[in-house]
Write a structure and sequence with these properties.
Rossmann fold, eight-stranded mixed β-sheet
């Protein structure tokens, strides 16, 4: 399909602003630029309660933001990991997404401000995210959550971290996860698929940007081939949580996300794969501007509700 007109309008607007791309900036400026892009979405939905706190992590406290919907406790819990190539992003950039998921899925969302690269290389982000999921399962009752209904989810690098935490939870036999929500996840480090070649430039996320992210996150080829960095390289993905995998047609990460869904299916893991034609990487967070983003959000919400039943 051709590029969706609403997505094209956003790309045209960003191009008209000029200036360097994110990966051409020093990391602090790239982080500021991502914050500015996130601000294009405007204010997020109201939720019943928001609590900013810190939780224990493997290398110090981890900031989290806990969103609670209206209703009767206990609620199921979604532990959410933001995107940004393990280098960019944080609680603020994904505030709107977390609010929509909390209200729509009627669940508590624990958004995790994990350590970023290059200051903290692999496996820092993965270790923080696993620690947050384990904390949420063990402490759910303290914030109105149900410890028997825990899911993980995230977009892009956050989708990567969700898949990784699902592998870690299986390998370490805790926490028991109901679901993994993988939104255009990074699953491999090769950067050599057809979707990388076809969508290398011009569709928000570029091949050069992904190389930049990987070079900041991984220390060496050993890191790049580690299943907790590149989950597509896991010896087996069997016995992990059921999944929804969302991909975008004009996204370098499309093929590896879909390859991961096929591996889950082949391993006997219940999985739904949905490709959103005409969409670009990052569209999931564009619900104020793009109709297919609204549809993807509703699909994610419905999948979470089913998983939490």
């Amino acid at each position: 399909m051709p590029l969706d007109p609403q997505a094209k309008a956003i790309l045209d607007q960003l191009q008209s602003m000029g200036g360097p791309q994110l990966h051409e900036l020093p990391v602090p400026l790239a982080r500021q630029a991502m914050m500015a892009m996130a601000g294009m979405q405007g204010a997020g939905e109201d939720v019943a309660h928001v609590d900013n706190r810190t939780i224990p992590g493997p290398a110090g406290d981890i900031p989290v933001r806990i969103y609670a919907p209206a209703g009767t406790k206990p609620f199921p819990v979604l532990v959410y990991f933001h995107g940004g190539g393990w280098v960019l992003g944080g609680l603020e950039t994904h505030d709107g997404t977390c609010r929509q998921l909390a209200n729509g899925a009627r669940c508590i969302v624990v958004s995790v401000d994990y350590r970023l690269a290059p200051e903290n290389k692999f496996p820092a982000a993965a270790d923080d995210c696993y620690a947050a999921a384990l904390w949420a399962s063990r402490n759910a009752a303290t914030f109105g959550g149900d410890p028997a209904r825990i899911a993980v989810g995230g977009d892009s690098a956050g989708g990567n971290l969700s898949a990784v935490v699902a592998l870690m939870a299986r390998d370490r036999e805790a926490p028991k996860l109901r679901f993994q929500l993988l939104i255009y996840p990074v699953t491999d480090s090769a950067c050599d698929t057809s979707s990388y070649r076809d969508n290398a430039e011009g569709y928000l996320l570029t091949r050069d940007a992904m190389l930049w992210f990987w070079n900041h996150y991984a220390r060496d080829e050993r890191d790049r081939s580690n299943a907790y960095a590149a989950p597509l390289r896991a010896e087996t993905v069997a016995a992990t949580a059921p999944a929804l995998v969302i991909t975008a047609e004009f996204d370098p990460l499309r093929d590896e996300g879909e390859a991961y869904a096929r591996r889950l299916e082949a391993a006997g893991v219940p999985v739904t794969l949905t490709r959103y034609d005409g969409m670009v990487h990052g569209f999931f967070g564009m619900t104020m501007l793009v109709d297919k983003a609204k549809a993807a959000m509703q699909e994610a919400i419905a999948a979470l509700r089913r998983a939490f039943e």
